[in-house]
Amino acid sequence: MPTAPNADGPNLEDRRLVHVFLERGREADFRELYQRHAPALNALLVRMLRGNTHDASEALQESWLRAVQRLREFRWESTFRTWIQGIAVNCARERRRASARDVQAEPVDVPSRGLDHPIDPLDLEAAIADLPDGFREVLVLHDVEGHTHEEIARMLGIAAGTSKSQLSRARRSVRRRLEEVEDTREKRIAR
To answer: Mean of the per-residue pLDDT values for the chain?
Structure first.
């Protein structure tokens, strides 16, 4: 097995688990690897799929099926976590494309809900869910999952500069949405 540039800590344990699974091919050996990563992967997919837990569950299963099929080809140029998240992001994209409810992304600077219908109660998840798909992906992968722009670029098939630009616009859109909701709440209280 080739040595990974960041084969320390959790990634070292992932390498051991992958090696044991590939040697033996038993479900019990795979289960530990799955249990280490499935919760965080599911949370990522729920965010990517705007809170649709059914689609997230389907995408999670598809992600693991693809990972198992490609596991022998994994070169450890990134961490296992980054690799499986890249697969999951692609599965989420495919589910969105197949879904009739996400036919077209919304413009960045135009809120999907006007001030007449503020988000109530507002939470950060709702503001993130209203972002166009590409901006939401970059925001979640960078600010929530902690990936670098270079990692995001590889996962999404975009340039690192595009990742930076989309992150900036996503943050601005979320900030604007939160400000609008707060202004609306203040106006209601003042009445």
So the answer is: 83
Helix (H, G, I), strand (E, B) or coil at 118: coil
Q: d(Cα 34, Cα 163) in Å, to the nearest integer?
A: 29
How many other CB atoms sit within 10 Å of the CB of residue 167? 18
- CA pair distance 83, 74, nearest whole angstrom: 8
Q: What is the pLDDT of residue 8?
A: 63
| Cα–Cα nearest to 84, from 92, 53, 96 | 92
Q: Please tell me what DSSP assigns to residue 143.
A: I
Burial class, 86, CB count within 10 angstroms (exposed 0-12 / middle 13-18 / buried 19+)? buried
Let me know: does 163 contact 134? Beta carbons within 8 Å: no
Burial of 46 (0-12, 13-18, 19+ CB in 10 A): buried
User: How far are the Cα atoms of 5, 76, 101 from residue 34, in angstroms, in the given order?
Assistant: 23, 17, 30
Q: How many helices (H) and strands (E) does the chain have?
A: 8, 0
Q: Is the pLDDT of residue 160 over 50?
A: yes
pLDDT tens column, 36-78: 999 999 999 999 998 899 999 999 999 999 999 999 999 999 9
